[in-house]
Write a structure and sequence with these properties.
By secondary structure, the protein is of the alpha+beta class. It folds into four domains: 126 residues, Rossmann fold (3-Layer(aba) Sandwich); 48 residues, no CATH class; 159 residues, Topoisomerase I, domain 3; 135 residues, Topoisomerase I, domain 4, CATH 1.10.290. Helix content is 35%, strand content 21%. The chain has twelve helices and 16 strands. The strands form five sheets. Strands 9-10-15-14-11-16 form a six-stranded antiparallel β-barrel. A four-stranded parallel β-sheet has the order 2-1-7-8, sandwiched between helices. Helix 3 crosses helix 5 and helix 9 crosses helix 12. The chain is elongated, with a radius of gyration of 31 Å. The N and C termini lie far apart (69 Å).
């Protein structure tokens, strides 16, 4: 920019304007639209259905002064940069603003994009302006028109049948239909009872569980308590009979189980990709108990800028939080790896920078054709800003969410966790002949021990397990060899329902 000239930068929010203004300094004025400035009219359809679904836009009530101020600022500027959010909605806001402030012979209006609010990102965007992307604008308009067509027709039905003031939209209406259909299925469902049998064994003071896996090599369903208790009684008698033949018996035990097979294998678990919007909302709900709106409100605060100190001012702590891309900038991945190597050592690093959604990333992170892959994943703007370092500047909920985002991103650049997984089989011969032969009950214990923590040294994902399903990683198993007899301390039948 030439000395003595002034450029106007237009963003959505005052908080974002404050942060960006600090980075750009003199010669730039940053103004906020405070959201949308133009929309379809409130009290009529506003769409010419017979003329190619042409939308009719009006200035939103209360935004007249905002537009007047932006027009005045544009007249006094030599350049105008539209710096609204880097998505379809932001593109449309910029398009509406440009249409209102543009005048013949006026300052050129260009679009700039950045996915994180840092000095480097904002400066780089100023150096690489482009035109407004009409395809993105058209995509937003299509979404808005569909919202109006569905909502304008369906909402009055809600007012008549449910409650005045309710609204229906193109997404929530379909989602509600799916919920209703699922609820009907749930109400029509008749739960089926089934049982499992679990043995508690001990060796060398270490307790662990083995679950009934099969009878006579066949998976078997146990439908009721009668059958479950019959199995428990028969297995207990057999275990006691085996113990009676041992020198000194099995002190304090019901009996013993013979080890018939031991399998050991190494298992690797890779870290998850950095967050996208949906996975951030899901993990924040599971780990922090945050609802989607709360998560996005906090993420917006972290993105737009937090005052870290008088010297540093407001700083954007995370990249743009509305994204369906797991992509990571190579510079961010490399920086994270440098920090991780200092903290944990080279052994804890992935073999190379993990870029995920980009062409150089992991295969499993290939992006859908519908993904707005100009975006990056949700990640810290500066991996060096450890959560503990910025905690005193953040509200409690802001800190929790930032820590979650930081840990997930850093872990994504780390080595896989390595487990030693062991499976021990116990084959117990029954004492009640069925069809002329005694039955054989196979109990199986499975457990894992962390051999190398890798990314688990920093971050663990939440896991959900169904009723009656044991987590492999919950129990460590003692060493065992085929032919050993392990003391049985309890055997219990457990009731479940589908």
């Amino acid at each position: 920019m030439q000395p003595g000239t002034s450029a106007l930068v237009i963003v959505e929010s005052p908080a974002k304007a404050k942060t960006i203004g600090k980075y750009l300094g003199r010669g730039y004025r940053v103004r906020a639209t405070v959201g949308h400035v133009r929309d379809l009219p409130e009290k009529k359809l506003g769409i010419d259905v017979d003329n190619g679904f042409e939308p009719e836009y009006v200035t939103i009530a209360g935004k007249e002064k905002t537009l007047a101020d932006l027009k005045a600022a544009a007249r006094e500027s030599t350049e105008v940069f539209i710096a609204t959010d880097p998505d379809r909605e932001g593109e449309a806001i910029g398009w509406h603003v440009a249409g209102q402030i543009r005048r013949k012979g006026g300052a050129p209006i260009r679009r700039i994009l950045f996915h994180e609010i840092t000095k480097e990102a904002v400066r780089a965007a100023i150096d690489r302006p482009r035109e407004i992307d009409q395809k993105l604008v058209d995509a937003q308009q299509a979404r808005r028109i569909l919202d109006r067509l569905v909502g304008y027709k369906a909402s009055p039905l809600l007012w008549k049948t449910v409650k005045k003031g309710l609204s229906a939209g193109r997404v929530q209406t379909v989602a509600l239909r799916m919920i209703v259909e699922r609820e009907r299925e749930i109400r029509a469902f008749r739960a089926q009872e089934y049982w499992s049998v679990v043995a508690n064994l001990q060796k060398g003071g270490q307790a662990f569980n083995a679950k009934l896996h099969s009878i006579d090599t066949r998976k078997i369903e146990i439908p009721d308590a009668t059958m479950a208790n019959g199995i428990v009684d028969e297995v207990t008698r057999s275990a006691a009979r085996l113990a009676a033949g041992l020198t000194g018996g099995a002190t304090g035990a019901l009996g013993v189980f013979p080890v018939t097979d031991v399998k050991r294998r190494e298992r690797r678990k890779n870290p998850a990709a950095p967050f996208i919007t949906s996975t951030l909302q899901q993990e924040a709900a599971k780990k922090l108990g945050f609802g989607s709106k709360r998560t996005m409100r906090l993420a917006q605060d972290l993105y737009e800028g937090i005052e870290l100190s008088k010297e540093e001012g407001a700083v954007g702590l995370i990249s743009y939080m509305r994204t369906d891309s797991t992509r990571v900038a190579e510079s961010a991945a490399v920086h994270a790896r440098e920090l991780l190597e200092r903290e944990y050592g080279k052994a804890y690093l992935a073999p190379s920078p993990q870029l995920y959604g980009s062409s150089g990333g992991k295969a499993q992170a290939a992006q859908s054709a519908n993904t707005q892959d100009a975006h990056e994943s949700v990640r810290p703007t500066d991996p060096a800003r450890h959560p503990d370092q910025v905690r005193k500047f953040l509200k409690d909920d802001q800190f929790k969410l930032y820590q979650l985002i930081w840990q997930r991103f850093m872990a994504s650049q780390m080595a896989p966790a390595v487990f030693d997984t062991t499976t021990i089989d116990f084959n117990v011969e029954g004492d009640t002949p069925v069809s002329g032969a005694v039955r054989h009950f196979l109990f199986r214990a499975t457990g894992s021990v962390i051999k190398f923590p890798g990314f688990l040294a920093l971050y663990r994902e939440t896991r959900e397990e169904g009723d009656g399903k044991a987590l492999e990683d919950e129990q460590a198993l003692p060493s065992a060899e085929v032919g050993e007899r392990v003391p049985l301390h309890a055997i219990t039948p457990n009731q479940h329902f589908t």
